[in-house]
Amino acid sequence: MVVTKATSVKATLTRDNFLLPSNMDSRKHSQELDRLLGFNTLKIESKLKKHFQHYALENSDASKRPYKINRESWIGLDPHHLLTPYGEVASLFEKIEHKKIKTVTDLGCAYGRVGIVSAFYFPDVSFIGYELVSKRIKEAQRVYETLKLKNYRLIEDDILLEDFNLPESCIYFIYDFGRVSDLKKILNKLIERMQTNELIIIARGDEIQSLMTKFYKEFKKENTVREKSFLIYTHQLNE
To answer: Ranges for the Methyltransferase domain (predicted)?
Structure first.
């Protein structure tokens, strides 16, 4: 067997490596893990920034074209702000690892950090990640393959299209990926899933959390808890 850097890295990593050390900030911790895993996020985001408009739609650079018309791609944002820190994901999974989880779906997975951490906490769980920007998906696919992760699908797709088919899943991750009207489209699809499925929705971002806690009666307060930057909603059919 040929031992490559990637396979040796995976062999030495444990889930404890993803937990944030008490003497390190989350940005430095995530940067070190990215380097260890072989990600080229800074290089890729820098190239994207040269060709496409800034992430804030209302502050678009007229000299550059949008990545996709009427879609928020978050191009131009510092990767530290674009990506969820590994430590936060690991801390979250520490809280819910006792639950029976078969599938994790990430609606806006970027470089697939959630899928990597889930592979160490739930090695038999299937992971599905959706991302609008193709270069991010390709880079995540490359790293996943070199690490020989299994049970995953990374899909380049626009989750806001009317014909987007939200898959059944035990856990859904959702973020502030666009306008409030865009967030509502996905929340409405998740509410439809709640009619027939037990599930957990994990939300990160002020807008999505505000919508869930203040404007949708379907998300009951008693079923909602917070873990660091995440809002965790657990839905059961017998309610």
So the answer is: 99-224
